[in-house]
Amino acid sequence: MILRIGALLATTIFIPSAFAAAMPQAPAATVDATPLTAKWTGPYQGVPPWDKVTPAMFPVAFPVAMAEMRREIHAIRDDKRPATFKTVIEPMELAGDMMERVGSMWGVYTSNLATKDVQAIDREWSPKLSAFYDELFLDPKLFARIKAAYDSRASQKLNPQQLRLLERTYRSFVRRGSLLTDAQRQQVSGLNQQLSVAYNDFSQKVLADEETWIVVDDAKQLAGLPDSFIASLKAAADERGLAGKWAIVNTRSSVAPVLTYATDRALREKVWRAFVMRGDNGNANDTKATIATILKLRQERAKLLGFRNHAYLRMDDTMAGTPANAKALMMRVWPAAVARVREEVADMQALARKDGANITIEPWDYRFYAEKVRKAKYDLDESEVKPYLQLDNIVQAAFYAAGRLYDLKFTENTGQIPVFEKNVRTFVVTDAKTGRNVGVFYLDNFARSGKRSGAWATRYRGQQKLGGETNVLASNNNNFVKGAAGQPTLISLDDATTLFHEFGHAIHSFLQNVTYPGLAGTPRDFVEYPSQVNENWLLTRDVLDRYAKHYQTGQPMPQALVDKIEKSSTFNQGFDTVEYLSSAIVDMELHDRETPVTDVAAFERETLGRLGMPREMVMRHRLPQFNHLFSSDAYSAGYYSYLWSETMDADTWAAFEATGNVWDKATADRFRQTLLSTGNETDRKDAYRAFRGRDPDVTALFKRRGFPVR
Predict the structure, then answer these.
(1) Same domain, 438 and 491
(2) Largest CA distance in the chain
(3) Is 371 a catalytic residue?
(4) Tens digit of pLDDT for each residue in 507-557?
(5) 63, 119, 319, 611: most buried by Cβ count inside 10 Å?
């Protein structure tokens, strides 16, 4: 399928034919990899056989899947018929089915189940897989067929989607280096292989630092923390054989509550330092040298491919188009955000003095005193909110909103199909109007050893009409801290927002309605848009009345508390905006340059200094742990996309609000039909204009964040 081919073109490399011939074949092993290579069976058009798969199968399955895909692509390359959309592009869309199945399952192992064995396999196979894809897709003979089809496009009587797919396929091959000489392609090959190794190295070093923890021996140090959270820290300690102690694992879900509630300032500082120094401790897991290597390789590759730098290469197929356009939006927001931080710090400093604390606000104090200011200004304490946010209920709330807006019905079938970890839940997704099966939703909510931090959405199988209608297998992956045995899992408002955000990605997948998978993937700066829009329904009264119920009394969240939340909605927006935006600006500055950075620490420090970064806080993702940028190319020179998407999101929510009913079905239908279901069948800027009648207005974003409109 060109969807996966297109994605792979962003990372794959060309290999000389001699090396290709020497690619490893299936080893003589006793491991039977059939569960990986066979077509998925069972209900819902087949599901991944997690119960039959082990990590040891992948080194056996990879060469088998590679051989099959090589045969399919070579058949297209060597076809003697005239090169057309029908003889080249369409069969490419259907190629690689076995490789897609194996790859989707391997992605779960490397992200959700990254044991030492999995990491070792990943180190060995990342460059081999990268090499394999370039062998296929930077083959001059294959590109000659694509170019011939492209050159004759005017005479082929193609419909708009076919023409767009043909043109985008040609452009993606050019962007990868298909117009280069053999020697240049071999250079790109070498660079990309080195990058695949470096990405793997970076990811595993960060994961190693995230699998550390701080042990607390004295319960007095935990003063201020909610009882339910203290119980989860005890469970984490018990799991690690630390009876009678508490363990604060070095991930955001464990760290954030400590920084927000712990009255022990020394503990806050210790936890904060451990967290922000991931990848930056001068030890075996230090990532700075790896980052410098990645930056050097990226710039060499961009130059070979005819781009000024890596940022221009990555932004060649985005809504923003150029680094300058992305920077213009970011720098329009930055001054207002920094000014708001100054106000927030002044409020916190005044409150600290009033409480008799003779301190200067430091980064490990920000969340703690912000929470105190929130309570003083709005009489709102986060601990008041959490008892109403029981994880299972918020999951049901997300389902309810999707049903009401888009007619999607989610029915739990956990235990009826295989899962990759015992706590994963599954749900059958149907069209509530017709009863048609849309797919299956997998939900992996809890943090654990071997699972990368953060939250993300994945898709094991995407919808397409070509070759027969397929349903969708999609997942959400979170890192919530599980409640103690026998206790419900309560999550923060931020966690609930994250759940709705990631579920927005799933909705986007389930609503997809395209013929060609190559027109399913959207530009990076559009990807976060549907998920950010979905966050807006979390705090609607309808959702709260049904699902935000106190875990002990069963009473819905009172309107007085909701009013406090809404009145405080612009509170701490300086912190939230600067924390994110500093990361996005540093990302763009790092990649929009022709001389690669060699001293990563100095660059981060000096860039933030020029920006006027407030000393009381740090970037949301410091460079040494910035997985978005350095575990792959995915968000490199693209972290700005969250702000780009949020600009559209705020403007879209304003359209719902303007109807007087945020559940307005006509607006939801138009949103679905114009933007959510159409993949990339039309230019996304044009699609947005069709939905809104104009380009997005940044005014809505400023109003949402409580910044003066500029």
Answers:
(1) yes
(2) 84
(3) no
(4) 999 999 999 999 999 999 999 999 999 999 999 999 999 999 999 999 999
(5) 319
